[in-house]
Amino acid sequence: MILYKFFLSLIYFLFYPLWVLIYKKRGFKQRTSFRNFTIEKSIWIHTASVSEVIAVKPLIKRLFEAYNKKTILMTCMTQDGLSAAKEISGKLFVHPFPLDVPHIMKRAFKYFEPTLIILVETEILPCMLNQAYKNKTTVILINAKISQKLYKRYNYLKWFLRKEFSVIKLICTQSENDTNKYEQIKFQNVVTTGNLKFSIDLPEYETYVLRHAWNYQFNDFIIALGSSRPGEEMLIKEVYHKLISLIPRLKVIIAPKQLQNIPEILPLFDREEYALFSESDTDKPFLIMDEMGLLPQIYALCDVSIIGGSFYDFGGDNPLEAIWYEKPVIVGQFHQSCLVAVEKFMNENAIIVSSVEELFNNIYTLYQNYEHRKNIGKKAKNILLENKDAIENHWVEIVKFCEM
Questions:
Q1: Are 160 and 1 in contact (CB under 8 A)?
Q2: Using CA atoms, how far apart are residues 207 and 6, in angstroms rounded to an integer?
Q3: Is residue 32 a contact partner of residue 98, using CB atoms and an 8 Å limit?
Q4: Class at the top of the CATH hierarchy for domain 207-386
Q5: Among residues 64, 71, 101, 223, which one has the fewest Cβ atoms lying within 10 Å of its Cβ?
Q6: Domain 34-195+388-402 has CATH 3.40.640.10
């Protein structure tokens, strides 16, 4: 670990201008300086992105209810995640995650004063854990999952990161398979608590009311592509042109995973084919979202939901928000980041896993059979509700450390 920290610090200082350039639009100053952000004895919760922020939201609300005098801090890797975190509570302190570099992490601990660190689903961060070891700060990992790739990496590194791993006093996993892998690496106190993302509680919408508000007609057939990644916008465009002669009033809503991808997306379409959400024109075949935070409404008003990041090798995005609204969900073959959840629905024929080549047929089959669409959506929602106890299971374990 000493050599790792030395070389990491060396790389940081040697390539400092490059770091500034890379993180210029992602809050470099905030990720390296904390002078204007001093809090005392905090519970530090760290998430990677928006989906983890949404998953942990009910837990944060419980923490405020049970420990209203405690300071709770949330850090996040992405700007969208930070924006979502700020909406949880006015009492929640929100800050970009510090760069995991020794001197920066030491400074962060000085200003954040964490008494407990809760890592949500994220990969283990060596410098953060090293500083936690030095400060004798307890770390717990919740909603944990571990891929085969990560399992091999942690198994190899467990001898080098012995001290760092020792500060992790609790791991709450999504599945028994995850529990077994963590225990094989010799982590202690590993408990299967389920997937927090099943404990979502999203707003209820009336589909027809929502369609009217968005200027869609009741008989429009709307396909939603949520959290799209590069390549998937062209894929849905090609599928649309095959379907348009078969499905009257076909419309497509594309919600990119990251808004900064929009300049690369727009040239894929003829200008008369699309409108941006900010233009309030839903008469065009394609509506491209240029505003965040509206995915629940999109899933609520559509007829078929397609989960982005899963048709090419990006790992897939969380399908549970779409499932909440009882619409049939199609996910691609690259869904390893949400494998446990997808398999749970696959076992009950409550989700459709599609290849690129099969996407056209899968959408058209759903269009032809309204009852089939309705049954898939309802079955998936029931499975989601049956697995909502993850929040209770997590709370029972976490509260033991909050009271220390």
A1: yes
A2: 57
A3: yes
A4: alpha beta
A5: 64
A6: no
